[in-house]
Amino acid sequence: MMGDLHGAAEQISPVMSMPPKLRMATVTNYLVEMDARLRDKRFHRSDIASDLREQIREFNAAALSADQVAKEDG
């Protein structure tokens, strides 16, 4: 991310369209880490950071747990 919010938004845009059953822990954990970085005080007044954080919360909230994926596949 390195402080470039526009670049970060572009990079995660394709990820945000992943269907819930493909939202593996690797992806959701990475986004949790990104959300933590976006809480930095240098981004507090940034609308882009706020929008990204909301997208991350919605994405992770819709991710299916491993148990749910197993039930759907099984």
The number of helical segments is 4
Task: List low-confidence stretches.
Answer: none
Give me the count of strands. 0
Largest sheet geometry: none
Task: Return Rg in Å.
Answer: 13 Å
N-to-C span: 38 Å
Estimated share of beta-strand residues: under 5%
Helix percentage range:
55-70%
Order of helices and strands: HHHH
Structural class: mainly alpha
Please tell me what the overall shape is: elongated
Average pLDDT taken over every residue: 85
Features:
74 residues, mainly alpha, 4 helices, elongated
Describe this entry's structure for a reader.
The chain is mainly α and 74 residues long. Helices cover 68% and strands 0% of the residues. The protein contains 4 helices and no strands. It has helices at 5-16, 25-38, 47-62, 66-73. The termini are far apart. The mean pLDDT is 85.
Task: Sum this structure up briefly.
With 74 residues, the protein is mostly helical.
Question: What are the SSEs and their pairings?
Answer:
Layout: H1 5-16, H2 25-38, H3 47-62, H4 66-73
Helix pairs in contact: 1-3, 2-3
